[in-house]
Write a structure and sequence with these properties.
Blueprint lengths: L3 E3 L2 E3 L1 E2 L13 E3 L5 E3 L7 E6 L6 H14 L6 E7 L3 H10 L6 E4 L5 H6 L2 E2 L4 E2 L2 E5 L5 E6 L9 H9 L3
Parallel strand pairs: 6-7, 7-8
Antiparallel strand pairs: 1-2, 3-9, 4-5, 6-11, 9-10, 11-12
């Protein structure tokens, strides 16, 4: 299993580690209007899934805004989403306040469906650990990064490169 720390303290991740070559596990998260969203809702597209502990914190905010900017150059066949355990209403307010319009922000607060399916749920904090997944049009995982220190930035360039290689 992936070894991750949060502020240099070891944490335990719930669920199974997802690896390159795996079929992406199914999950259900909530949109900001409380409607359920699944991976199949974006079937046929390349999916860039950016996972953050909380969009309302420094690194998470920067990460989400960075992928929002990158989304404009990735094309219509790419679905960019950020998933956190923030409440959908808080995500909606943050998204509006930060003028984030090019990606979808989804909440896993209800039952950690995404976190358990992708092995990102932090047992001690009931948050998701910082990670990036790229899923191709057929649902196969082509890029995975579990950031070893959850408060550090991911490798943005590697994620964008992985998406562009699928276009």
């Amino acid at each position: 299993m992936v070894q991750v720390t949060f502020k240099d303290n070891p944490i335990h991740l719930l669920g199974s580690e997802v690896k390159v070559g795996d079929q992406a596990p199914s999950f259900t998260v909530l949109a900001n209007d409380l409607k359920p969203v699944t991976l199949d809702d974006s079937k046929g597209k390349v999916r860039l899934i950016s996972v953050v502990p909380s969009v309302d914190t420094g690194v998470c905010s920067i990460q989400t805004k960075r992928f929002n900017e990158e989304a404009t150059s990735l094309g219509e066949d790419v679905e960019v989403m950020t998933i956190s355990c923030d409440l959908p209403f808080a995500q909606g307010r943050w998204k509006e306040n930060e003028n984030v319009e090019n990606l979808h922000l989804y909440s896993d607060h209800r039952d950690l469906s995404f976190g358990k399916a992708f092995g990102t749920a932090i047992e001690e904090l009931r948050l998701l650990t910082r990670s990036i997944f790229v899923v191709d049009r057929d649902g196969k995982v082509t890029h995975v990064e579990y950031v070893s220190e959850a408060t550090d930035h991911p490798d943005y360039d590697a994620a964008i490169k992985a998406v562009k290689e699928l276009n």
